[in-house]
Amino acid sequence: MHHIKLLSLTVPVKHNVIVPVKRTVPSTLKVLQKMENPKGNPFLALIKNFADNPQKFQEGLEKLLNEGPEKVCRYLLDILALRDKNTAHHANGVAKIATKLSKEIGLSSQETEKIRIAALGHDLGKLYTPLKILKKPGKLNEYETAVTRKHALRTKQLLEQLGLTRKNDIFKNAAELAENHHTSIDKLNLTRKKTMEEEVLELSDVFSALTIKRDYKKPQPPQKALEAMKNMQKDQKLWNSELFEKFTKFVEKTYCKK
């Protein structure tokens, strides 16, 4: 009698295994995710909840953009105010000055709108400037100055990381203006001719910075601030001479009334 040995075969069975996708959050947004949101800012809530979920984030961003570019920019400015009210106050001031100046020199409503949005958002990069530098009461040293100057590029990077520059041309323009708004003062890229929009933003920024209170300085009266800017222009030729003349008359008429 013969014995037959039966072999047991094991057949591998394929299963549908769901492998979780690990999403990374850009470092610029990680900083914002850690912030408190005491007033329920919708843009900050979107970042905190969905920065690691591109689809949900884009859906939320579309809804916010339906409220208009200025409203979106003000949401971002309110986030900045949670960290530094003085810088946010300065941005509001720059936007008011730039809007008035744009109208005074005859820019179109579209050009004025571009400059206003850029003015509101031009200092958003200071969300990433260390507070010990941002609020230092005395003069900044060389290293601290270099760190502070990075805020212009970081503003552009933030608007790009949020996807705003891809969604709306006005934010793309704002990102470019923000990146270049210290061109004259920092003596960077002086071989490149600046646009009218850049110069309007820069003049408005400098005038506002001189006339508002900061942790490290007292505000200057408008007339004194204007004289300081005239000296800067005389010594360094920072701005287009025709535009600066118009700016001078605008400041004297609007802010230096007796």
Describe the 3D structure.
The N and C termini lie far apart (126 Å). The protein is built from 14 helices and no strands. It is 62% helix and 0% strand. It is globular, with a radius of gyration of 25 Å. About 2% of the residues have low confidence. The protein is mainly α.
Structure summarized in a few sentences:
The chain is mainly alpha-helical. It is built from 14 helices and no strands. The relative contact order is 0.10.
Features:
258 residues; mainly alpha; Hypothetical protein af1432; 14 helices
- The best one-word shape is globular
For this structure, the CATH topology is Hypothetical protein af1432
| Percent range of helical residues | 55-70%
CATH first level: Mainly Alpha
Major pleated sheet: none
**How many β-strand runs?**
0
What secondary-structure arrangement, pairings included, does this model have?
Layout: H1 27-33, H2 42-50, H3 54-65, H4 69-83, H5 85-104, H6 109-121, H7 131-134, H8 142-149, H9 151-161, H10 164-167, H11 169-180, H12 196-211, H13 222-236, H14 241-254
